[in-house]
Known about the structure:
Blueprint: E1 6-10, H1 14-24, E2 29-35, E3 48-55, E4 58-64, E5 76-81, H2 84-96, E6 100-101, E7 106-108, E8 114-119, H3 120-128, H4 130-141, H5 148-156
Parallel strand pairs: 1-4, 5-8
Antiparallel strand pairs: 2-3, 3-4, 6-7, 7-8
Amino acid sequence: MAKNTICLWYDKDAAAAAHFYAETFPNSRVIAVHRAPSDYPSGKAGDVLTVEFIVAGIPCLGLNGGPAFKHNEAFSFQVATDDQQETDRYWNAIVGNGGQENACGWCKDKWGVSWQITPRVLTEAIAAGGDEAKRAFDAMMGMMKIDVAAIEAARRGCAHERQAPNAS
């Protein structure tokens, strides 16, 4: 196990979540599944207790700790994408697998973990500063899933090229 690992608390589905992430994101895999050696408050001996996995290069530990704690937006994975196709693939995988959309490129998977699916063109526009950043930021504020073409148009200052905010 890595020296510093993100621990994600799940009710009981850490293994299912880890396998989904491994199937969805490159540089992701399930490393090990550990079963409880005896009964514990939220499970029985032999139940999956922890799952070691890597998601997009980040070492994680999924803990099946029961329903006491829920995920929220204070923690999220931010995945940088190179184009609309990659953005769509990750967004649609998360939302289409029981997740939910949120504003400005955020979504939640069915286990409640928040994800920011963020095209690099958006972060580059904001980093550029000035009017370009403002136009890109204002365009983003009306979006759910980020529309790469609309962000690129906003960067150029081409209001007539902008598309209506998307709903998915």
